[in-house]
């Protein structure tokens, strides 16, 4: 897509701090400066999010997410990672090119990497009936 910022990064039209690249994926540091090592993993093929991404592309992205996550823990001194992904504006997706955030974590680093929820509004049995797959 011509107006997609991540597609422009892949094409080299916008500079980035590349962490990893292969035939199918590209990973780079998020310039937000919010957490040290905050990394974005994207497919080179444009898709909006998980909901419209083909399974093969998604598999390549997830392989890269795992490879980088293992590298951060095995080689870079981190203890774990948060993996974050949003799909659709309703889920707070802000860049409409599939991407996963890797947040490298150290024990007791003070980073709140998991959202706080205010509590479910519906009975769990009703939600089960609505959501279960037959």
Give your account of this protein's structure.
The chain is α+β, with helices and mostly antiparallel strands and 134 residues long. The chain has one domain (5-131): HIT-like (HIT family, subunit A, 2-Layer Sandwich), CATH 3.30.428. It is built from three helices and five strands; from the N terminus they run H-E-E-E-H-E-E-H. The chain has helices at 5-11, 55-75, 124-131, and strands at 18-21, 25-29, 39-43, 80-84, 100-105. It has a five-stranded antiparallel β-sheet, covered by helices on one side. The radius of gyration is 17 Å and the shape is globular. The model has no long low-confidence stretch (mean pLDDT 96).
Q: Which secondary structure elements does this structure contain, and how are they paired or packed?
A:
Blueprint lengths: L4 H7 L6 E4 L3 E5 L9 E5 L11 H21 L4 E5 L15 E6 L18 H8 L3
Antiparallel strand pairs: 1-2, 2-3, 3-5, 4-5
What is the count of distinct domains?
A: 1
Please identify, by name, the CATH architecture. Answer: 2-Layer Sandwich
Distance between the termini: 37 Å
- Strands, total number: 5
Order of helices and strands: HEEEHEEH
The overall pLDDT, averaged over residues, is: 96
Short description:
The protein contains three helices and five strands; from the N terminus they run H-E-E-E-H-E-E-H.
Descriptors for this entry?
134 residues, alpha+beta, HIT family, subunit A, 5-stranded antiparallel sheet, 3 helices, 5 strands, globular
